[in-house]
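Long-time lurker, first post.

We've been arguing in lab meeting about whether coenzyme A would sit comfortably in this protein at all. Half the group thinks yes, half thinks no, and nobody has a model to point at. So I'm putting the question to the forum: if I give you the sequence and the SMILES, can you give me back a predicted structure of the complex? Inputs are below. Any interpretation is welcome too.
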Amino acid sequence: METERILLRYWEESDAVALFKYASDPDVGPRAGWPAHKSVEESREIIRTYFHNETTWAIVLKETGSPAAAGEAIGCIGYYTYETSNIPIGENDCEVGYWVGKPFWNKGICTEALKLMLDYCIQVKHFENIWADHFTGNPASGRVMEKCGFSDTGILNRCSQLVGGDKDKVKVFKYKG
Ligand SMILES: CC(C)(COP(=O)(O)OP(=O)(O)OC[C@H]1O[C@@H](n2cnc3c(N)ncnc32)[C@H](O)[C@@H]1OP(=O)(O)O)[C@@H](O)C(=O)NCCC(=O)NCCS
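Top reply:
Settle the argument with this. Predicted structure of the protein with coenzyme A, as tokens:
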């Protein structure tokens, strides 16, 4: 999946150094409900355990864009099915999740990646509804959802399995496929 500027491709173990560079930032993971990475080895293990599947993609820049080299993983996007979603969704639905390294925030990269993901989820996987959620204290993520055509359902959910989920609720958004 690609646009002029970005490519979504599967993760490789050799992405561990780049993953650690961006996922060790305490401003990234905790906003999405997971802890900052503590070592390159931990990042490599996370690639092996959680990213080596057909539902998780690395977001890469096609051309060098400081501080990333062309092809370097600068973020992650993927979907969860009914069985693995954080929120109650229909059997034919999925939930999307994403993050982008801080040096690349507010350049429209996540919006571009989510639009690609939505196309894939609808045209290729034929999901009925696509769900997404964000901590109430993380409005930038809600803005990405709105820019991609998601609607605020008004549902506030407690997701205790997320890091920080005991302190903040998530706002639930839905995109009708
Ligand atoms: C949320 C995140 C993925 C957005 O990625 P991004 O590539 O910067 O997103 P985009 O540039 O496509 O869009 C960001 C939008 O949020 C807006 N925004 C930024 N900070 C904001 C804030 N504090 N309040 C409201 N909107 C904000 C930007 O202005 C932009 O909207 P605009 O185009 O209308 O100006 C990125 O900040 C991130 O990875 N954060 C940490 C992890 C995370 O939150 N993941 C999502 C978990 S639900």
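For your lab meeting: The longest helix spans residues 109-124. The mean pLDDT is 96. Whichever side wins, do check it experimentally.
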